[in-house]
Structures are given as C-alpha cells and as structure tokens.
C-alpha cells in the first residue's frame, strides 16, 4: 500500500523550489498581464513564527497562488519589522547585541517560512533595522521637517515605566501600555518630535468612504479615533478680580450669577471654550477648566489655597489612575474665585477647575450647561451650581419650566427643539440657532464655528536604542539643524551598552552624540531619541517594489504600476495604529509627488485570532502550539490547510490537534487515490466527455467544486468550505472507485478528474499538489498552470433553483440538487447569507418547504 509521507515529499520540493530563485518573481509591466499585489503584514522577528502568522500567511499564500493561476502578474513580498523593544530586552537578558539577536531570529523565521512553502519573492525582502532601509525613514523625516509636518514641542506625554519610553496615544489602551496590559501609563513633560497627522484629519476621515473593500468594523474604529466634532469656539473675557470688592466676593460665593447689565472690568485674560452646543450658551452657569489649563497656573500662582486644592485634584486623579479606574473617576472641582463674562448676555460665570475636563481636547475649557449635559448636571448637582433650561422640544403643551430640572433634559437634539430663555435667539430651532449664534460670535470677534478632532499629532520620539536615529542636530548657536541628505544615514552605533537606566541609551555614547553643526561647523550634539517603530511599518510595502534602490526610498514608476495594494491581510489589532499611520504616510508621499495613489490598499482583510481551549495562545497561559511541532508531526501542507479549514478566516480559530491529524488523513487519501490511477491518467488521450452516468456524476461534482472555490476566491473567502468541497469531491471519487477499477470510467475522464483535483489543491496544499502534478506526468509549472474553468452546464445539470421567501416576500434563491430532501432544502435556505441576515435577531416561527418548488420562512 502506498503511503503519504510529507516528511519525504516536502523537503524534496523545498529543495527544488530553493534552486529557482526567480520562481515567485514578478514580471515587468510590459508582460501585459493584469497586476495583483497581495500583502500580508510583516512580522516582528521575535525568533519563532506563531500560529497567528501561519494563519495569516496561509491565507495570503492561497490567494497569491490562485491569482498566479488566474494569469495575474503577482507581487507577493515579505519582510521584517525589525526594530523595537524586545531586541533590547533580549540584549539585557542574554547579553547579545540587538542587531545580532534580530538578524539570527530573521534567519530562523525565514527558514520556517520556506518550510511552510510560502511563495514569497525574497529578492525584495525588506529588513527595517538595516541602514539601507532606515536611511529612508530619516529622509522622509527631513522632508516632513521641511514641510512643517515634523515639529518639536514640549508636552505631556505618555510614559510607560516598563518600556522606559514614551508611547503614542495610539499605544495607550484603557490607560495602560499596549505591551504591558497591567502597567498604568504615566504622564511626563518632555520635549518630543511630533508628526502633524492632524493636518490630514479631514482627509483621513473622508477617504474612509472610498475604502469599500475594508471591513466596516475597521472603518468605524478609524472614524471614532479621528473623532470629528462640529461646533464652535467662544471666547469669554475674564473679569478683573481687583475690580470686585471683598464683600461682593463674599456674597457671590462661587455659585451665584449676578444679573446682567452691570459693567465689569476685563482682566485682559480670556478663556476659549469649545462647544458642540453653542445654542445652549444662555444656559451656561459656570466655566470649567482642565486642571492643567494655563490660566489655572496663573490663578494658582497668586493664590496658595487654590494651588493646594488643584494639586489635590491632580493627586486624586493620579491615584484613581493607579487604582485603574481611569474612566470612572468621580467628578471633583474647585472654584477659582474668578469670574468670566458670557459674551452673549454679559452674565458673570464662576470659573471652576473640573477634573472631568480633558486638557488636550478642544481648548481644555468648557462652558458648563447643567440643564442639558449629563456630566455638567452631575457636577452642578454636587456643588449646588445653578441650572437653567434653555431648550425645549417644540411640541410641548407644558408651560415653560423656570425652576431647576430634576435631571438633565436629554436628548434634545431633534430638529423640533426650540430655544427659550435665550434673548434674541428665543424660538429658533436648535440647528438654526447654532448657525446664527456662531455667526453672531464671529461678527463680534469673540468666536466662530469650529471643527475639532480627537486625533492628536503623532509623537514619534522614543528614548530607546534599537530604532531609527532621528536625523537632527542640536547646536548651541543655530538651534535645531537637520542632518543634510548627503550625510544620511545617521548610523546606529553597532555596539552600545544597554542598561535598565532611564533616558536615551544613545545619549551615553559620546561617539554618537558629539558631532559638528552642519551650519556653523561648531561643536554640536546629535538628537539621541529614535523613531517610533510604527514609522518603519508605515511605508515598508512601497519599498517591496524596488527594495535595492539606493537613490530613493523606491522607484516612483514601479510604485505607480503596483499600487494601490490589491489585498492587504493582517490582524484587526492594527485597525488604529498601523492602518492610520500608513494611510497618513501615503498622503504625505503623494503630496511630496512620489506616489500617485491616495490610499495604500483597496482591500483589507482582517483574520481572526488563533486560540487554544478558548484562550489566546500565550506563554503565560502555557497553551502555545508551535508551528514547528505541527510541521514535524503532520507536514506543512496539513498544518496550513488546517489553519484554513478549521474556521472561516475572519473568525477566531480554536486549534485542535485532532483536526490537523484529520486533514493529514485527508491528504493521505488524496495521495493514494491519485497514485493508484496516475499511470492510467498519464496514458489518457482524447476528450473527457461523459459517456455513462458514473462519468457524468464525477464530472458534475468536479465542476460544482470548481465553481464553489472560484466563487469563494472572488470575495467570500470561506476557505473552510472550499476545503470541505474538495473533501466531498474526493469522497465522490472514492465512492466511484469500483467503477473506475472495472473500466466504467474512461482514462480521459479519470485524467480530467485527477488533474483538476490537483489544480484545486494547489493554493492550499502546494507540496502535495506539486508532487502529484509531477506524478500525473504534467510538464507545465503548476504555479502558473491555468486555474480550471467550470462549465456551468456540467455543474448545474441536476441542480435546481429554489426561491426562498420570508413572510411571503422573495429574499433569496438557493441552488440545490433536484432530489434534495425537505431537510436539506430547509437547512440550505437558513444557511443562505441573505436569508441569515434577514432573520438575524428574529424568531423563526414556521418553515414551509414545498419540495422542488419553494421554501417560506415565517418569522416574528
Ligand atoms: C456645552 C454643552 C452643552 C456641551 C450641552 C454638550 C452638551 P464631543 O462631541 O466629544 O466633541 N467638552 C469640550 N471640550 C472638552 C474637554 N476638553 N473635556 C471635557 N469635555 C469637553 O463633545 C463636545 C462637548 O464636550 C462640548 O460641548 C463640551 O460640552 C464638552 F448640552 O459644551 B458642550
Ligand atoms: Zn551651529
């Protein structure tokens, strides 16, 4: 009996493939073929591929191979996101230099990828920690600096004590570090480099609409992250404290608002607030400043008691953060003793410091409208501040309330709502009032309509060694001076002492730090921070088109041919960070005139996680399954194929070793079936027409399988059901074995069957497919062999279309075998995508099946 032995087949083919370095090479544009760029997110070279990688790359590899077989010119590259903290940690632990550690990990992981049989064009491999790559990070940084897109500012930054470095806002998750889930992120005041991603906020938001090939989930996350708010800014003059007599101050307490009409002296200071509801400005009864607001500092400087109280507020905030209740801090506040003037009605509003005001959103100050805003209501309630209703639903018969509301009047956004207690603006609808009031503010120079984004500029300075040096020089005389292009790259010193000590490690290397100023030639110091590694991954996929270019980051014409990426595949955990940064980078490069596309990728696919026993695989849980083990036991084909078979690719996959064994047994059946009949198939001549019912049934199943898989590659990507369909085909063939043996199936039909079976397997189990292709005597390169075409007539013959109704209305049409049972009809109808969507969340009360005619679902 023949035995399927992947341990023999796979290394043999791997050697043959390795001997053909151009096997997966792209063709020049002149080939005239349509191009297809399939990209999988590049891995961090931690040392070992994990199952998440295996899944990601199995999906991409299946797609690349399919597209080659469809006649496309395919770009399928791979590289290494090779800078980053783990290399420094490993250096501390094992005393190996980060570069050595990283490069040896890369070598090992590259071997693992080859062993998996992944079809990468390694000629354009990108390794981000090599100077040939990172010099272009520096080049981009300089271009951004010239355009004012890279700038330096002192600011509060997120600091992870465990990483001992600054984090971008995108790297802070629920107040904790993205790498250290239990580490509360601290705030530090530092001078940092920022990239002005906010310049592109509107475009990043608008262009999401054109990314129809991206999961809606990712687009929604990006929309929320960008967080656009339409509203207005209004400036409130601060009253001169000295102009108020002492007992008047006593009388006011801090909650009372004096009647309008009194003249007040302005202090020259003012407070700008951002509001999305300027229409409620007559209902404002205080102003609230973030504890970090500049004016709070000014007030505190002259008022020790206030300074103490604000410090306490900050301390409470810090404690709450440390206790982990960042979101749920109780609202606290302190009255500053100062007043501001509402420019609409001249009212005096007490100025408070509120712990619920964010320093870095809007202007860091708000007008508080407790009658209509939940947070303000809670605050006002606690401190006994006045509440005044200024908006009512239009259709109310109730008399206008003038007392204080029991709860904030929410929601009041309907177009029906109208203003009351609002002077000249009374009776206007909310939306109209918003426009008129913003215009009024602008005419009188105390405000204007304003759009605000939640998105912040991207802080890219990191106090780490293993990253791209920022190409800037600090000169005492000339200030900040960019490194001239012809002095790039600024090389990372190869050997450096890595310690747990804070501060940038590069700062401790005099050979690196001390330099001369490019402007005056005098003594100067290099910038010692390195760039966030998300810079590296923001544009690596452009470099793949011409990775050996040493004159430019890439060749513009080649990029114009390959871009945008046709299909990007990776984990949904990158929905915000990497996928926003790389969209931003593309737009910057477009504005530099070196790319023509507005967006990096037309289609994005986010695969589910690989889990084990219901939990994410991790060392700490001890549930890690190693790809190497699986390959050693079952072969690369079975491992890859299981990764595609065990779940739809967008869902989480619970790794079951039994399942891998099952796939391996299936491959073994395929192998034996093909090998038993290879000789006959090889001798076949003539066409593969069906002359008997058996032949017809075999060809029908074959063409149904081809149709199913072809359609799935076109969009749905349910590779699990594709593989199940191949299994069914093999079952059908095995069931016909007796007929095959006794000559009821012609050699030609047999050949047609086996040949196409191998073609269908090629994207999923390349080793076995190549082996059998050879055994069947096929001469062409399987990689470029044309994908089989299904013949509708052959596939459909015995199938009929059945309409599916929901509550009597046609919702879909399913295709089933003519003789399908009632149960099959019912199950097929319920599993149909359109039907499933229509009945989701509803109760199916009754299913009426009229065999061969109709399925009707009654739902409630
Ligand atoms: C008055 C008002 C009345 C507001 C009302 C809302 C409802 P989004 O949609 O998130 O942009 N706000 C502004 N800056 C803030 C800050 N730095 N920290 C905390 N809150 C801030 O929300 C904008 C609203 O959030 C603004 O509109 C402001 O409160 C508050 F019935 O102004 B509003
Ligand atoms: Zn100088």
TrEMBL record:
UniProt keyword Disulfide bond, yes or no: no
Location (main, coarse): cytoplasm
Residues passing through the membrane, by range: none
Residue ranges annotated for the Methionyl/Valyl/Leucyl/Isoleucyl-tRNA synthetase anticodon-binding domain, each copy included: 696-820
Annotated compartments: Cytoplasm
InterPro entries in alphabetical order: aa-tRNA-synth_I_CS, aa-tRNA-synth_Ia, Leu-tRNA-ligase, Leu_tRNA-synth_edit, M/V/L/I-tRNA-synth_anticd-bd, Rossmann-like_a/b/a_fold, tRNAsynth_Ia_anticodon-bd, Val/Leu/Ile-tRNA-synth_edit
Residue ranges of the motif 'KMSKS' region: 616-620
Gene Ontology biological process: leucyl-tRNA aminoacylation
SUPFAM superfamilies: Anticodon-binding domain of a subclass of class I aminoacyl-tRNA synthetases, Nucleotidylyl transferase, ValRS/IleRS/LeuRS editing domain
One MF annotation (Gene Ontology) recorded for this entry: ATP binding
Residues in Aminoacyl-tRNA synthetase class Ia domain copies: 13-227, 455-655
Motif 'HIGH' region location, chain numbering: 43-53
Coiled coil: 296-323
GO cellular component: cytosol
Record keyword Transferase present: no
Documented EC number(s): 6.1.1.4
Substrates-to-products reaction catalysed: tRNA(Leu) + L-leucine + ATP = L-leucyl-tRNA(Leu) + AMP + diphosphate
Binding site for ATP: 619
PANTHER family, per the entry: LEUCINE--TRNA LIGASE, MITOCHONDRIAL, LEUCYL-TRNA SYNTHETASE
This protein's name: Leucine--tRNA ligase
Protein source organism: Acidobacterium capsulatum (strain ATCC 51196 / DSM 11244 / BCRC 80197 / JCM 7670 / NBRC 15755 / NCIMB 13165 / 161)
Gene field: leuS
């Amino acid at each position: 009996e023949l035995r399927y032995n992947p341990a023999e087949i796979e290394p043999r083919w791997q050697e043959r493939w390795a001997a053909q370095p151009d096997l997966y090479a792209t063709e020049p544009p002149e080939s005239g073929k349509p191009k297809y760029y399939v990209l999988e997110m590049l891995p961090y070279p931690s040392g070992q591929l994990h199952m998440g990688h295996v899944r990601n790359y199995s999906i991409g590899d299946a797609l690349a191979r399919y597209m080659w077989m469809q006649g496309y010119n395919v770009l399928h590259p791979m590289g290494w996101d090779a800078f980053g903290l783990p290399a420094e940690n490993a250096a501390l632990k094992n005393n190996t230099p980060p570069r050595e550690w990283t490069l040896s990990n890369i070598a090992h992981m590259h071997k693992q990828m080859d062993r998996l049989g992944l079809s990468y064009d390694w000629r354009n491999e990108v390794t981000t920690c090599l100077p040939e790559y990172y010099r272009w990070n520096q080049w981009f940084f300089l271009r951004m600096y010239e355009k004012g897109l890279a700038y330096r500012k002192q600011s509060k930054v997120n600091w992870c004590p465990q990483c001992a470095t600054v984090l971008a806002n995108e790297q802070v998750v629920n107040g904790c570090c993205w790498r250290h889930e239990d580490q509360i992120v601290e705030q530090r005041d530092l001078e940092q480099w920022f990239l002005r991603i906010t310049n592109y906020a509107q475009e990043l938001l608008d262009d999401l609409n054109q990314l129809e090939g991206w999961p809606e989930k990712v687009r929604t996350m990006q929309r929320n992250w960008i967080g656009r708010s339409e509203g207005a800014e209004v400036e409130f003059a601060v009253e001169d404290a000295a102009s108020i007599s002492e007992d008047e101050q006593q009388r006011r307490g801090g909650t009372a608002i004096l009647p309008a009409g009194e003249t007040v002296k302005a202090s020259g200071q003012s407070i700008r607030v951002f509001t999305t509801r300027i229409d409620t400005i007559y209902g404002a009864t205080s102003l609230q400043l973030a504890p970090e607001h500049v004016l709070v500092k000014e007030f505190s400087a002259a008022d020790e008691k206030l300074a103490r109280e604000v410090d306490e507020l900050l301390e409470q905030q810090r404690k709450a953060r440390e206790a982990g209740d960042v979101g749920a801090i109780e609202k606290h506040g302190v009255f500053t003793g100062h007043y501001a003037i509402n420019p609409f009605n001249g009212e005096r509003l007490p100025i408070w410091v509120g712990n619920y005001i964010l320093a870095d959103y809007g202007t860091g100050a708000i007008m508080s409208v407790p009658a209509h805003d939940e947070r303000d209501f809670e605050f006002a309630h606690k401190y006994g501040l006045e509440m005044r209703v200024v908006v009512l639903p239009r259709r109310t018969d109730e008399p206008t309330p003038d007392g204080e509301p029991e709860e904030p009047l929410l929601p009041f956004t309907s177009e029906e709502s109208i203003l009351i207690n609002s002077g000249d603006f009374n009776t206007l609808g909310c939306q109209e009032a918003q426009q008129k009031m913003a215009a009024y503010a602008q005419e009188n120079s105390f405000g204007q309509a304003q759009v605000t984004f939640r998105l912040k500029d991207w802080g890219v300075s990191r106090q780490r060694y293993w990253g791209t040096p920022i190409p800037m020089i600090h000169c005492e005389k000339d200030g900040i001076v960019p490194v001239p292009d012809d002095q790039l790259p600024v090389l990372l010193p190869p050997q450096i002492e890595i310690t747990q000590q804070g501060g940038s490690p590069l700062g401790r290397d005099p050979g690196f730090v001390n330099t001369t100023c490019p402007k005056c030639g005098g003594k100067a110091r290099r910038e010692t921070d390195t760039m966030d590694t998300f810079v590296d991954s923001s544009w690596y996929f452009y470099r793949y088109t011409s990775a050996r270019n040493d004159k430019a980051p890439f060749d513009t014409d080649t990029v114009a041919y390959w871009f945008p990426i046709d299909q990007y595949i990776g984990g949904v955990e990158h929905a915000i960070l990497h996928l926003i940064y790389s969209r931003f980078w593309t737009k910057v490069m477009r504005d530099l005139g070196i790319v023509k596309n507005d967006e990096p990728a037309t289609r994005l696919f986010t695969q589910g996680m690989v889990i084990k026993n219901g939990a994410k695989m991790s060392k700490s849980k001890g549930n890690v399954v190693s790809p190497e083990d699986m390959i050693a036991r079952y072969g690369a084909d079975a491992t890859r194929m299981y990764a595609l078979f065990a779940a739809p690719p967008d869902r989480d996959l619970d790794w079951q070793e039994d399942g891998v064994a099952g796939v391996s047994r299936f491959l073994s059946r395929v192998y034996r079936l093909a090998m038993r009949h290879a000789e006959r198939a090889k001798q076949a001549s003539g066409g593969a027409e069906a002359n008997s019912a058996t032949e017809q049934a075999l060809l029908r199943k074959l063409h149904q399988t081809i149709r199913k898989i072809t359609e799935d590659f076109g969009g749905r990507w349910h590779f699990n059901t594709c593989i199940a369909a191949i299994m069914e085909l093999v079952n059908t063939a095995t069931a016909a074995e007796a007929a095959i043996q006794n000559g009821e199936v012609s050699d030609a039909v047999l050949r047609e069957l086996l040949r196409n079976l191998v073609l269908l397997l090629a994207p999923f189990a390349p080793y076995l497919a190549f082996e059998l292709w050879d055994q069947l005597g096929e001469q062409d390169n399987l990689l470029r062999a044309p994908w089989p075409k299904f013949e509708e007539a052959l596939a459909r013959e015995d199938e009929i279309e059945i309409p599916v109704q929901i509550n009597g209305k046609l919702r879909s049409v399913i295709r089933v075998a003519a003789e399908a049972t009632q149960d099959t009809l019912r199950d097929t109808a319920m599993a149909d995508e359109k039907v499933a969507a229509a009945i989701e969340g509803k109760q199916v009360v009754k299913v009426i099946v009229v065999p061969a005619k109709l399925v009707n679902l009654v739902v409630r």
